Amino acid sequence: MNISSLYLYKKNSMSPRPRKSRNIGRPPSVLGFYPTGKTGKVKSDPVVILFEEWEALKLVDYDHLSQLEAAREMGISRPTLTRIYDQVRKKLALAFVEGREIRIEGGFVDFTKEWYRCRQCHAVFQLEPEEEKKCPECGSKDIYNLNESVRDWQNMRRRGRWRGETAGFCVCPSCGTRVKHEFGRPCNTYVCPNCGQPMIRE
Question: Is the pTM of this model over 0.85?
Answer without folding.
Answer: no
